[in-house]
Every structure is written in C-alpha cells, then in structure tokens.
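Lab notebook, design round three. We kept the backbone fixed and only want residue identities now. Task for the bench partner: fill in a sequence for the structure below.
Input structure tokens:
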C-alpha cells in the first residue's frame, strides 16, 4: 500500500489500519510504502505506474487525486485516467479554529470581524494549494471578503503558529487541532462539512452560519493502477468494504477525527470526477499555480 505522505499522518494511519486488516484476512503480509513529496503526488505517481495486478494500492486523498494536477506543471499521472478507484474509505470536514485572542465567539461574529478589518485578519494554511488554503480562498470568494494568507510547511507547523497567536484563524484538519480545542487552547467556530459533527458538539457548519452552499470536505480512498482486471477490483472492494464496516476500524478512525464510509468503485469514480471539476474551477478562479 503506497502512502504518499510521511509516517504518522492521517493517510499513513489509515493505510496501516486497513493494511493490517488485509493481512489478517488474506494471510499475506501487507507492506506500507511511504513515498512523500510534491504534496502527495510523488507517491501517487509511483502507484499509478505500478503493475495493474492488484498487489499495489494507493491511499489517495483529495490533494494528489483532485487538486495537485491543477497547480503543479507535471505530477506524472492523470487522476481520471491512471487509477482504478476501489472504494471511498474516510471523510472529514475541516474545522474553523481561531486563537482565543480573536474577539469572536461564533462564526458569524468572526465573519463580521473579517468584513470590518478588511485584509488585516490573517489565516494560516498547511501550504499553497492545500485544502486549508483552498477552503479559506473559497470562503473569501463566496463572501467577497479579504484575509491575508500565511502559508506553512505542513499541519504541525501551522498548529504551532495558531497556538502562539502568530495567525488568527485556520481552516484545519479536525485531527490536528481537536485536542487543543478540547483543552480550551483554541476556539472552534464552525465545521466545513454539510452537517455538524458529534466530535465538536454545538459547533455549526459554515453554511448554517451565513454562507449557504459552503462545503469543503477532506476524503481518503483506496485506488489501484488503471487496467487492474475487474474481478480483482471487485474482490478488493468487497474485502475493503467488509473491513470498513468493522466496529474496531470505525473506532480507530473516530479517534483521528474522521468518519468511516464506503462505496462501490463506480460511486468512488463519480466522486473523484466531481471533486476534480470543483477544484479545477476554484483554482482557475483564484488564478493559482505552482510551476
């Protein structure tokens, strides 16, 4: 299983949980191959170019599968042509969090603050083109407001900056900041999914807080190289869906602040096409590109 990010992150943990279950089910050792670089695209390219025999899988997420080919000149693969999607596995809304010094107790109060302090509120991201960057840019476009972008290299550094008050707000992955929210060190204002999450009781969605239609959800799924025979795709889907329904797997993912899901290969393919279209339009509208 190729994980296109370093050990210890959400993608790596997902890969190891599913890999262990596949090892137990099939009595063959499943190996995790961490190939990080180019925001996940290096590992995705390795998987795309692997033999299409069912023995190499990719833990793909929204970055390398739906975003990166729009912002990097050559990622080395076509996300719509070079993979055989197996199943969607995990989804997670982002959470909008602020440093306690920011004078806003609710998202509506924060939105008013952004409008009255045009260009003076700064937001941090885990890097140019990351979903935390694009979420904030989508918010700016939908509300016709302005915030200053402060990019960092990864979610760990951005969280440190937010805790120190170096940045005002972050549209963050849930797992990274949830412990700090629960400890009272950061304030949660809203989640970016289509519905609230029990992980942060009482915290509304951005859409409910005055920005109707706003949704931005992270996701992870399992893909094989294009050309993998259909019987193998079906077998992999059947086994992975069985694993994703296990109570201990759901509990392990819940600890990460993510929701377990599953799909048919066709449903996952349609989901990827929809996400590619959404992010292609957003990135084109922003005019953002990394050479």
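Proposed sequence:
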């Amino acid at each position: 299983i190729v994980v296109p990010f370093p050990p210890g992150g959400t993608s790596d943990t997902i890969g190891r949980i599913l890999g262990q279950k596949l090892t137990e089910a099939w009595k063959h050792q499943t190996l995790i191959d961490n190939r990080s670089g180019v925001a996940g695209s290096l590992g995705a390219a390795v998987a795309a170019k692997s033999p299409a025999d069912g023995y190499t899988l990719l833990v793909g997420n929204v970055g390398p599968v739906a975003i990166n080919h729009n912002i990097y000149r050559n990622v080395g693969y076509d996300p719509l042509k070079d993979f055989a999607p197996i199943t969607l596995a995990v989804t997670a809304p982002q959470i909008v969090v602020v440093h306690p010094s920011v004078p806003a107790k609710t998202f509506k109060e924060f939105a008013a603050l952004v409008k009255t302090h045009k260009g003076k509120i700064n937001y941090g991201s885990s890097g140019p083109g990351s979903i935390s960057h694009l979420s904030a840019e989508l918010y700016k476009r939908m509300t016709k407001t302005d915030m200053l972008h402060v990019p960092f290299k990864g979610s760990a550094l951005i969280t440190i900056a937010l805790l120190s008050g170096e940045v005002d707000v972050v549209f963050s992955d849930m797992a990274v900041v949830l412990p700090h929210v629960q400890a009272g060190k950061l304030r949660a204002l809203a989640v970016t999914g289509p519905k609230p999450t029990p992980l942060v009781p009482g915290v509304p969605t951005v859409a409910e807080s005055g920005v109707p239609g706003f949704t931005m959800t992270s996701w992870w799924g399992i893909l094989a190289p294009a050309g993998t025979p259909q019987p193998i795709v079906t077998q992999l889907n059947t086994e992975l869906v069985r694993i994703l329904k296990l109570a201990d797997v759901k509990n392990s993912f819940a600890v990460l602040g993510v929701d377990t899901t599953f799909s048919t290969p066709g449903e996952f393919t349609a989901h990827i096409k929809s996400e590619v279209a959404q992010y292609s339009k957003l990135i084109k509208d922003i005019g953002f590109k990394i050479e």
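Keep this in mind before ordering anything: The chain has a mean pLDDT of 92.
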